[in-house]
User: Fold DUF6745 domain-containing protein from Sphaerisporangium krabiense.
Amino acid sequence: MSTPVLHPRLAAHLADAAAEWDLAAHATGPADRSAAEEGVRAAYHAAGLREPRQIIWFASPAQAATAAVVLSGDAEARAAVRGFGLLPPALLDLNAGPLVRDPVRSAPWEQVRAQAASALTPTAWAAAWEFVGGGFWPQVNRLVGEIRRGIGRLAADQTRPARVRTATSREPHEPTDPVEGLLRRATLDAVLGQHDAPWLAFFDGLARASLIDLAPLDGVLRVSREAGWWWPFEHVVLICERPAELHRDDLGRLHHAVGPALAFPDGFGLHAWHGMPVPAEFGATMADLSPAAIRRQDNAELRRVMLEHYGLDRYLRESGADAVHKDDTGVLWKADLADDEPLTMVEVVNSTPEPDGTYRTYFLRVPPWVTTAREGVAWTFGMQAAQYQPHQQT
Assistant:
């Protein structure tokens, strides 16, 4: 694929880079630790820093973010996360020095970005970014956001076993727990490793077309190809394994019916249903749905997911919903839902027969304020009830 703004040769290089980095962004399985550590050292050398004395590996960004709070926080912050049980005791007294994210990652990043800005017109920049990042940037960015929220929610989830915790946040929210705030802020200090892939694909494509020099970012690139998130301190680097499992739906959203959609080797993970965070037991619930089980769900958002999975028309048929109106356009049905708007649908019959001579029945969801079947059918065409006078329905 190319665009009129991009030279075909540049488009081809961008496409190759995007395909390669898309794989890196969603890679699972053990990191290549040796290659990643070489990348870390290269990034420190490029920044004019001494190599870190220690490179400490963690099984998940949850563990590493907790360690980052300990290494960068004050005594109060250390005390707040000390009881998490996620960290080796020796780490609590380690002198890591200050964070050096700016010289190791931000400064070379800005160097390369400035080269790209000089090499491309604003129009070409927008086209190149859309070409590379338009596809997988939203997916990766959403994944990063979910991981950050999941790490933050660990602070509110301390009643679970210490080393097998699964984030259960259902909605984005501002952290109110101080420890949650510490953890969320720690995630903002991370270099995202494989999840920096969309921007690295953009830069890499331009470099393959000889438009920019990627040397300043060589170390960062090498780590991103081989490992997950990392936190560079002056003397110590905290670095993470990649996920052990990643399950997505056709739209690239986190989704798995049985088990976590994203799981790291230590058990930290995220459960999701087509991108929506759900409790761990939710997938099993979906395998044995019934109208009664749907009505018992007190979370309106989860109940909507259950309804869509069960089938809105099936729920109407099996839940004892009321037929509240009938005319020559169809039948208007309503079913009350606790703490939510009623499920309102119009049952219509296709006026065109099927090949076998039968007529199919459809259910059209309409707004809850609809009071007649005609009003509901007219609404699906963007009309008022009085305007809906079809000569022939198809």
